[in-house]
Amino acid sequence: MSELVPKVQLFAAAVPPGGAPTGPRRRRPPLLVALAGTAAAAVAVGPIWYLVDRALERGWDNTVDELWQRRTLDLVARSVGLAVTVTAACVLIGVAAAWLVVRSNLRGRGVLRILFALPLAIPSYLSAFAWVSWDRDLAGFWGATLVLTMVSYPFVYLPAVAAIRHLDPAQEEVARSLGRSRWSIAIGLTLRQVRSSITAGALLVALYVLSDFGAVAAMRYEVFTWVIYGAYRAGFNPTRAAVLALPLIVIALVLVTAEARARGRAESARIGSGAARRGAQVPLGRAAPLAWLMSLTVLGAAVGFPVYRVIHWVTTFESTEVDLGDVSRALGKTLTLAAFASVATVALAIPVGILAARFKSATSLAIERSTYVAHALPGIVVAISLVYIGVRVLRPIYLQTPLLVLGYVVLFLPLAVGAVRSSIEQSPVGLEEVARSLGTTSRRVTLRITAPLAIPGIAAGAALVFLSTMKELPVTLVLHPTGTETLATTLWRYTTISDYANAGPYALALVLFGAIPTALLSAALFARRDRAAPGLRRRD
Amino acid sequence: MPRRDCVAVTEGSAHKAAPALELRALRKAYGRNVVLDGVDLVVPRGGIAAVLGPSGGGKTTLLRIVAGFEHPDAGEVLLNGRVVAGPEVNVPAEQRRVGVVPQEGALFPHLDVAGNVGFGLPRGHASRERIAEVLELVGLPGSLRARPNQLSGGQQHRVALARALAPRPQIVVLDEPFSSLDAGLRAEVREEVMLALQAAATTAIVVTHDQQEALSVADQVAVLLDGRVAQSADPETLYNLPASLAVATFVGEAVVLAGEVDSDGRIVCALGSLIIRGGTRSAGTVDVVVRPEQIDVLAPGFARALSGAGEGIAGTVVSRSFFGHDGVVRVLVGNSTVVTARLHVAHLPTPGSAVVLRVNSPVSVFSRTASLDSA
Lengths: 540, 375
Hints:
The structure holds 2 protein chains of 2 kinds. Chain A is mostly helical. Chain A is built from 23 helices and no strands. In chain A, helix 3 (70-103) crosses helix 10 (195-211), helix 12 packs antiparallel against helix 13 and helix 14 crosses helix 23. The radius of gyration of chain A is 24 Å and the shape is globular. In chain B, strand 4 and strand 5 (82-85) form a beta hairpin. Chain B has a 6-stranded mixed sheet, with helices on both faces. Chain B has a 6-stranded mixed sheet with strand order 13-12-11-15-21-14. In chain B, strands 16-20-17-18-19 form a 5-stranded antiparallel sheet. Chain B is globular. By secondary structure, chain B is of the alpha+beta class. Chain A binds chain B through residues 16-17, 19-23, 428, 430-431, 433-442, 448-449, 452-453, and chain B through 30, 35, 60-61, 64, 67-70, 92-100, 102-104, 106, 108-110, 119-120, 163-164, 166-167, 169, 175.
C-alpha cells in the first residue's frame, strides 16, 4: 500500500491477522472520537492553509513577481545544491556503515551498530556551533555540508541496516554457487536489492536538509529556511516570508511523496516472511583497520567532537559568571513546555489513531493523512504560519505559551499519531472478540485488553514528543513568550554572539536532558522492533 | 461463578431435549457476496461436530455468527433451545457463553498463562482452582506463570482452549485450530485437544478445510458447500453414503465414471457391472463414484484363479506413487479412462504391467441432473 504521505513507523508492527477475515468493520465511530479527530485534523492543516492564503493575499501576480527574481533562483540553487551534496555524502556513509555492521566480520560491530545511530539525537545547531566556534572559516557551504551530513546520515543508515538484515541469505548463496565473487555480490546483488530502502532514506535526508534551520543559520549559509527567518525578523515585508515558504513547501511535498513511494517499493520488495538465517559475514582481512579508522572518524565528527566542545566550553570558561539560577530556570521552562506539548499532542493524536486503526473509512483516512501534512513542512514554515494566525486571529495568545504549544502540536502530531495508531493495532480485533466471548463487556475489554496493550507504545510516543520538543529550535525561537527562555533559545542567543562561555551550561543541559535520553529511547525502540524507522523525523 | 452455574442448570433442565446448537436458515451476505445461503444445522449435546468446507466458503463467518461477533441477515441461532440471534434477538457475545478458540490462539500477550485462562472467571479462590483444573485438563499443569511468547505453538493452542473452557461455556467453537501448526505437531496437538474436549464433556464445533481432520476428530461432520450444508452426518456415513457428487468428491478421493443402470438394478461402467449402494439414481447416464480403496488390483493369473468371484477388467499401470503405509497406482482401462486404486502391499506393480481391476464393494451413483442442481 503506497501512501501519499508517509506514516511515522517508529512503532509500526506487522498487524497480526485478527482472526477476522470477513472484511473491515463498517461500524461508526463514537461521535466524540470523530469530533476530536476532526479537530486534530483542523489543527494540523489550519496553519498551512492560512499561510498559503496569506502568501496569495495580494493576488497571484504579486506573488509571482515576488518570487520571480534572480535572488530566488540563487536561493533555490543554494538549497538544492546543499541538499544534493549532503544526500550524496549521507548515502555513502550510511550504506558503508550499514554494510560494515551487518555483513562484515568487523570486530566490535555490535557496539558500532548502536553508536552509528547516535547522531540522530544531536541537535544540528549544537553540532554547528561546536564546529564554527572551533574554526570560524568553516562557516558557509562546506561547514553546513559537514554538519548536516554528520547529523542526518542515520536516515540512510537505519533503513539500510534493516533492509540488509532482511535479505534472504539463500539468494547470495545461489549467486556464489553460480560463480560470482563476494565483492561482486555485495555490489551487484545486495546493494541492488536494498536500493529502494536507501532511496527512501536519501529522500528523508534531502527533506531534512531543506527544512533544517539551526545548522544553516549557525553556518550563515543563505538557504530557504534562513532567508525566511530573516524576512520574518526584518518585519519589513511580512508577506515575503510567506511567499518564500511556498516553493519550499512544494519541494518538501514532492520529496515526501517520492519518499513514500520509495518506501512502498522497499516494503513490497521483501518476499516471504523473514529470513530466519543470517547471511555469512564477509571477512575484511587487511581492510579491517581502515574500516575502523573510517568508523571512528565519522563517529568522532558526528558525536565526539560536539560533545568534546560542549565540555570544553563548560570547563574552560568556569571563571566567568554563569548564573546557574538562569540555567535551572531555562531547564525548568523547557521541561514544562515539553510536558505541555507531549500531553497536548498525544491527547489530539489518540482520537486520530483510534479512527485510523479501528474505523477505517475514506473520512478517517483523510483525517489521518491531514495530520501528516506537517511532516513535510520545515519547522520555520510552521512557525511563520502560526505567527500569521497569532497576529490576525489568535491575538490574545500571540507570543503566549498556548500558541507555542500549538506550534509543537502541529510539528509533532505525525510522530504521536503513528505511535498511537500502531499501538492500538498491537491489540488486534480478534483479541477483543475472544475477551468478549469470555463474558467481558466492551468497556471492560477496553480497560483489560486494549489499553494495557496500547499504553506502552503511546507512552513511548509521548516521550519522543517530549524529547523532540526540548531540542526544537525554530518554532521555539519564533513563538516563545517574551521573557521566557528555554535551553534552546538561550543557547541560540549566546552562540549567535559567540559567547560560548555562557552558552556552555545550556549546551551541556541540552545534551544531558535532551540528546542522551533521545539516544536511549531510540535504542530501546529499535531493539524492540528490529526495523528501521524511516518515518523518524528530527526537528531541531 | 455461582451465578453462572445456576443459569446453566436452569437452562439445562428447561430444555433437556434441545440440541446444544441449532442453526435455522441462516443467511449472511457481504454486499453482493452471499457467504451463507440458508444454513440448517443441528449439533446434539456433548459431541464434537466439524464444519468442513473449502477455504473462503463461509465457515469462519458461521462461527462468528454463533459466537455473536456478526449478526445474520436472516435465520436463527439457538443455543440449548434458546434463540440468541434472530430477526428480533441479538444476545451480545459477552452474554452468550460461547467459548472461542481462534486460528492462531490469540492469547493476550500482556498476561501470563494464569491471567489468560482466568480472564473469563471472577477473581477468587474458586477461580484459581478452576484455572488449575482446566490446565490439567489440557495437559499443561503447573505452567501458570509462563508468558505466551515463551510457549510453543502447540502449548499456545492448549492454553487458548483452557481459556475458552474455564468459564464452562455452553459450547466451544474452534476456528481452523490446527492449521497454523506444522504437520508433525498437528496430529499430536489435535489428539490432545480432542481428548481434553471429551474430558470436559463440552459440545464443540471445529471448523476446518482439512477433510482428514474433520473425519478423524468429529462425531458429526457438516459439509458446507456454496453457502449451504450439503450433508451433515457421522464420518462413516459421509464417506460411504455421500448425499451428492459434490460431497463425494470433496470428502475423500473419488474416481468418477459415467455409467448406465441396467435392468437388474446394477450399474454398468468402465469398471464392469457393479452393485449400487446409495446415492440418487435415475434412468440414463449417471455418475458412479468409486473410492480408490474399493478397487482391488490383481495380477492377471491370480484373477483367473479366482474367476468364480466375478470377472475383472483388464488394464495397464500408467504410474504409481508409494507412500510407505500404502500406495496408489493409476491404471488405464479401455482407451482413455484412467482410474486410481489404493493398494496396501509392500510392492506396487511397475508402470506398463498388465493388471486386472475388480471393485470389491457397492458404489454410489448420482444422476447427472441432481449433481448439477447441487453444484
